[in-house]
Amino acid sequence: MADLGAVQTAWAAWDDAPVAATARAAVDAAQVYARVVASGAQADAEALWTWLGQRWAQWQAYDAQHRADASYADKEIRELAADGMRALLGVARNSASQASHAATILRHWSEVCGVMSYLLLFENMVDPTLIPVVRVLAQLLANAVTSDLALQQIVWDLHVLGKQAQSPDALVRLMSSSDARTVLAASVLLLNCVDTALEEELNGSMTTPPQKVSFALDLVQTPQGIKIMETVIMVYDAALISDPSKGGSVQTMAQETVDVITSIVQRLMRCGHFGKLLLNMRPTSGGEPHVSTSQVTLLHILAACLESRLERCKGEQHTHRISSRMLSKVMQKSERYMNSMVPLLSVFRDVAHYTIQTMKEHVDGRGVVDFRGLIRAHMALLAALQCLHLSGMCGQEDVARRETTGNTQFLARLRSPDDKIVETCVTLLHEVNRFFPAQSPFQTSGKRSQEEETGSVKAKKTDKTVPDMVDGEHGMPDGKMDDMRDDTRDGHADGHADGEPAADGHAGAHAVDDDAHGAHAADGPSDMRDGTPNKVAMRSDAGAGASTQPSAAPLPDGHVPTPNLMSHPVTDSRPALHRLKCSVLQLIGTIVYEPPGMPRLAEVTALQDHIREYAIFTLRYLLAQNPASQRLVAELRPIQPNDGAARTDRPPLAGAEDVPMPTASGAAALQ
After folding, report:
1. Residue 442 pairs with which residues in a beta bridge?
2. 320 falls within a domain
3. 369 in Cβ contact with 313 (< 8 Å)
4. Is residue 442 within 8 Å of residue 555, measured between CB atoms?
5. Are 43 and 176 in the same domain?
6. Do residues 232 and 187 lie in contact, with contact meaning Cβ atoms separated by under 8 Å?
7. Distance (Å, rounded) from C-alpha 13 to C-alpha 2?
């Protein structure tokens, strides 16, 4: 077994004969000794760190004299020296994981700071020769915070928060490295700092050191902590889109980095500090909406955590009784969960109200031209809706097991009329449908011939008994379209999947997807509906009598392709707000029982097969224990194709007692 004396002898031989052979022998001896230290074998820590400090100072003095225009031989010698430095830092890295070495490491930490200050210079971090050395330095720091609380505190103060001049932003620099392994090590360093001990389910003991809770607070409420978390989120984004062509090892590092960052967010959730982080990441300048891209990405990470939690919930069984002591710990855990999740409600409401107001101003003709804020709000809404939906699903699973958890408490908060989450969702659904209504790709063959002969467009009077209903935007469930359906906007046909380009190849156009089949033209006469001017593209006279090409998709019986379908590029500048209606419906179906929403849901889902499953799930909840909704459904009758008269021979819909309530698992199956 190698010992420190053998390593020192090999390095002395390298000093005497600086050639490649002696250099490789010295490096090999250091690597073997590093494995010995990692195994926990007895070692003289003081002698080891004294010798390491001398070698580090010697290497730093040599490398600082290197010139970019050095000869090839000098560059080779420098590469050998850097490899030796990497091996020495590997010995220190393995020593840092040993609790018995912690006191010695604290006494010699100034030597580590000297090496760190040199290696974290920008020109050294991007130097290919020194990148492996920087990587092992990051691993040394990650191990140093695991063995001793005092050592952990000094690393946190000096190199994470930067309370002193020595490497004030060491962690941020390491996480900004171009080397995937260095970034992973820096992420592990942060995870080790904020990691909290798990609560024992059976005895209810809580072993979280108060110091680690303090670390988590520093991370979510200090300026340097927010800067670090924003860097972490940028690393998360970069890891998700890592280049597959760089090889499997890089992909593996990227996935491990994603997993570590997700674990960091889970720890913040467990401490009850996620909500503080979400609110403190709001932009301090700029216009509305007050939401940043970092917040959106953070919500995506939260959604990943909740999805993992939901999978665990489905596999758990409630098989033991909870003692009073354990119940107290469960309630503390629930309180921390609520502290993490409740701020999400305010973020959702603020962004939703901005979105509603912006779309309303545009539809009412008050001139909204710049939609960049609306697009950013749309991204935030999708992420927030997904988080709220997954949290609600977790709550339903816990309710099914008759458990009181943070999930069940938050689900009750979502359903509370005080927060107006459901009302906000219904209003948002209404305004999105007015802003970019769904378009049918079909019209009935009988109406087509009549309108082609007259060349006119007829609008039926809006039924004022149904609140906020815009007539002419959707067909009835039996496939009969209203008179406005002939006024098809120039655009794309139905049938494109999310993100799939349009068939006519217009890359810059807003393709049709979940929320809109077709788009409004940029110019054309206004059609007044309920006093609201909506831009519509009128058919040309030449196109009225011309034959149209059949659609690639099979047509329903009694329907023909709409004239001029896909014959012109889309010039509408409005964002289509992809999948927003679907996400809103999904959340409503998860949380509502009694609040109103039947008219809007019936209108929006008339022609959208891809969200019909969510609509059915939502409608069943709206009908349950809601006599007003049941009466409304009982009064609905499809219009007869011949005379337009309503049928009266159908019995009313069954009551809530005849409608089986779906479980959370059944809801997930609809996805």
Report:
1. 561
2. no
3. no
4. yes
5. yes
6. yes
7. 16
pLDDT of residue 423: 86
Give the pLDDT confidence score for residue 243 in this predicted structure.
67
Q: Taking the C-alpha atoms of 330, 332, 336 and 342 in order, what is their torsion angle to the nearest 10 degrees?
A: 80
Question: Quick check: helix, strand or coil at residue 93?
Answer: helix
Structural domain includes residue 280: no
C-beta separation of 362 from 278 below 8 A: no
State whether 53 and 187 are in the same domain.
yes
Whether 472 and 617 share a structural domain: no
Strands (E), 531-591: 532-535, 559-561
Which range, of 14-18, 122-126, 404-408, 489-493, averages the lowest pLDDT?
A: 489-493
| CB-based contact 382:297 (threshold 8 Å) | no
The conformational region for residue 239 under phi > 0 = left, psi -120 to 50 = alpha, else beta, is alpha
Distances (CA, A) of 90 to 32, 41, 141: 10, 16, 11
Tens of pLDDT, residue by residue over 471-483, are 333 333 333 333 3
Please indicate, yes or no, whether residues 490 and 606 belong to a single structural domain of this protein. Answer: no
- Selected residue with higher pLDDT from 455 and 414: 414
Instruction: Compare 33 and 560 and report the one with higher pLDDT.
Output: 33
- Residue 331's pLDDT is what? 61
Identify whether 630 is part of a domain: yes
> Please, are residues 452 and 545 in contact by the beta-carbon 8 Å criterion?
yes
Residues 567, 653 share a domain: no
C-alpha angle 81-87-90 in degrees, rounded to nearest 5: 145
Strand partners, 559: 444
| Angle between helical axes of 180-194 and 210-221 (0-180°, round to 10) | 120
Three-state DSSP class for residue 585 = helix
Query: Which residue, 554, 543, 432, 429, is CA-closest to 490?
Result: 543
Q: With bands split at pLDDT 50, 70 and 90, how would you rate the model's confidence at 416?
A: confident
What local confidence, expressed as pLDDT, does residue 656 receive? 38
Parallel, antiparallel, or unpaired for β 532-535 and 526-529? antiparallel
Same domain, residue pair 627 and 525: no
**Can you give the residue range of the structural domain that contains 654?**
580-669
Whether residues 562 and 589 fall in one domain: no
Burial of 306 from C-beta contacts in 10 A (0-12 / 13-18 / 19+) = buried
**Domain identity same for 597 and 540:** no
In contact, 154 and 164? CB cutoff 8 Å = no
Domain end, chosen from 161, 192, 223, is at 192
Q: How far apart (Å, rounded) are the C-alpha atoms in residues 668 and 123?
A: 51
Q: Residues 163-180: pLDDT tens digits?
A: 776 667 899 999 999 999
Average pLDDT, the chain: 72
Q: Per mean pLDDT, which range of 15-24, 291-300, 649-658 is the poorest?
A: 649-658
Last residue of a domain, one of 173, 192, 211: 192
Mean pLDDT along residues 262-266: 92
Give the model confidence (pLDDT) of 313-337 as tens digits. 776 655 444 444 444 555 667 788 8
